[in-house]
Each structure stands twice: as C-alpha cells, then as structure tokens.
Amino acid sequence: MTSRVAAAIDTARAEGRGVFVGYLPLGFPDLQTSIEAAVTLAENGADILELGPPYSDPVMDGAIIQEATQAALAGGFRVHDTFTAVREIARRVDVPVLVMTYWNPVAQYGVDRYADDLLAAGGAGLITPDITPEAAEDWIAASTRTGLDRVFLAAPTSTDERLELIVRSTTGFIYTVSTMGITGERAQLDAAARTLVGRLRRHADAAPDGQVRACVGIGISTAEQVTGVLEYADGAIVGTALVRALRDGGLEGLAETTRALAAGAASPA
Q1: Rounded to an integer, what distance in angstroms lies between the CA atom of residue 58 and that of residue 90?
Q2: How far is 168 from 171, CA to CA, in rounded Å?
Q3: pTM (2 d.p.)
Q4: Half-sphere exposure of 36 (CA within 13 A, CB side)
Q5: Eight-class DSSP state of 204
Q6: CATH code at 249?
Q7: At what angle do helices 160-169 and 192-201 cross, to 10 degrees?
Q8: Which residue has the higher pLDDT, 55 or 48?
Q9: Residue ranges making up the domain that contains 172
Q10: Among all residues, which ones are annotated catalytic?
C-alpha cells in the first residue's frame, strides 16, 4: 500500500517546498472542539496532522501540552474517542492523520485491534515516541498488514547502527528530534538536528523505498524556524505554539497561527 504520509511529502517536494506538520492533543479543550481544531489546521495550511490522545504520564511533553492533556483526561477522554475523532476529521479533510501515542494505551487496547480501528477510521498511522523498532515487533507486523505508517524517533544521541535500524523500520517519515529533552519552544534550534538529518540520509539504502524522509520536531515555534528547518529536512513539526494559540485565541487564533507557520513552509525548500 502507498503511504499517504510519504505521498504528501513527495508532493510538497515536487512543488519545491517542505511540509508543515501540525500537532494538537485530542480532547482539548473538549472532544468536539479538538476535532474542529484539527480541521482548522488542515484548512489553514497543515500538510499532515499529528494528533495526540492524552496520556497520564507524558514524559516527552512540555508544560503547555501537559496542561492541555491533563484537561482532556479530566474531561473524560477515553482511548476509543481517538477513533471517533480521527473518523470525523478524515471525513472532512483530505490530509493524512497520524496519531502520536505513547505505547501503553496501544498495548492495553490490543495492537491488532488498535491498528484495525485506526485504519477503519481513516487514520494514516502512528508516531510512537516511547517504543523502539526492536521492541515493536507486533506493531511492525500489524502496520505492515494494514498499510498504516509507523513513525519512529531518531535523536542526536542515536548511534549509526540504531539510525540504520530506524531507517529500515520506519515508513512515512522519521521523526527527527531537534534537541534532547521535552517538547516546547526554544529561541534557537539545536544545530544537532541538521547533523542528524544528514546522518539519517547516509542510510537511505536501508529505507523500504530507498528514500529517507525526515521531519524535525521539538522546539519549532515560528515561521522563520520552519523555513530554516526546511533548508535541510523534509518537514517541520510544530506543537506547543499551536496548543497555546488554541488555548489563548480559540479556533480563530489557531487559524491565524497556522497560516503564519504554513507560510514558512511555503518558502522554497
């Protein structure tokens, strides 16, 4: 099966630009508004949606995202709400929808059941920040069977052997961590991200289709940073700035921020 996520990146590349990946937590400030927020992202320039079901121990998330996910949990969000949200979003917009989830909820739900329900809802795949390829045999099998993308993370501290394994195991794109630590906004992106993308590309022969597609996340919050990242990467991932815009300005504020960030991706890559 063709990866919808890879196709979105390839289409943007053919147009001489990179992709803008927008992250929002599901269930914040409530389930229906989070659905409307995801649609707002897609309608205002996001090429790929990254939606995070709230989790009780979000070890990678900064304060603003943690605050939002805790509010979603307090509002009664449940795992099955993920598929309800993805189904409605996928019905309304023609943008690939990735779910970024910690692994425990998937394991508790059942890996094959989760994959089948995500596929049925119209989802494109999973980003799994806390499971490595060698520990993901069940998910690799389920995603291969269903055609869902499996997005693993690569960090500046990863060895070349690990990077090759990540390249071999990943479909869609590799989530390239710009800095060590939690998500959030930083005045300057770590130069390690540029080096890491270059290291990943040296392992292109290991990729399923011979191509390394790398999107950089963690710390990107301005259109200028988006443009800078796309000088060397295929995509820029923004989360905290979008969550803040939704929190402080509602859907209208989110739309305005999305358009501004998407303009950074529209610059020639």
Answers
A1: 25
A2: 8
A3: 0.93
A4: 13
A5: G
A6: 3.20.20.70
A7: 70
A8: 48
A9: 4-266
A10: 50, 61
